[in-house]
Design brief:
With 188 residues, the chain is mainly alpha-helical. It has a single domain, classed as de novo design (two linked rop proteins). It is built from 6 helices and no strands. Helix 1 packs antiparallel against helix 5, helix 1 crosses helix 6 and helix 2 packs antiparallel against helix 3. The longest helix has 62 residues. The termini are far apart.
Amino acid sequence: MKKSTIILIIVVAVIAIIIALLIGGYNGMVTKREEIDTSSANLDVMLQRRADLIPNLINTVKGYMKQETDVIEKVTTARQNLINAGNIEDKAQANEELTSALNGLMVIVENYPDLKSSQNFIQLSDELAGTENRIATARRDYNEAVKSFNSSIKRFPNNIIANMFGFEQVSYFEAAEGSEEVPNVSFE
């Protein structure tokens, strides 16, 4: 073989390897981005399920505790904020707000033994608890997908491909600041 033919074969092979790496890296990032979108959609479904349960819970509670309108309004407002949240940061903050409002509601429910023993309330509370568990799972799955994607676009040579095609880091679904504090519930 001629020297020029060998050089041409080597150049073509190197170009083919580079193209294969680019295609593989790009497709890997697209797949990871789709995993994030799927996890985000699953999380949205669980948050919506939670928001859909709230009106039934509120209506059940309203019949028993007429004077606790402030707590009911907080839960209703927090629910609406969750429904209206647009991006993942807003959803995380609204979710924490709703959790805090629901915790306050459940503390007050303790003062109403008839309500606690109501079959409708028990069923709604069980559904809400199950939904809370599903939200925790969906949140974990979303954050795992984000971790995988963000790690992928930071690694070499994917970081070059990510910059070429505009792949950017995605935010985690994190608890709002101060959410680790127990809500203050007053009976005054």
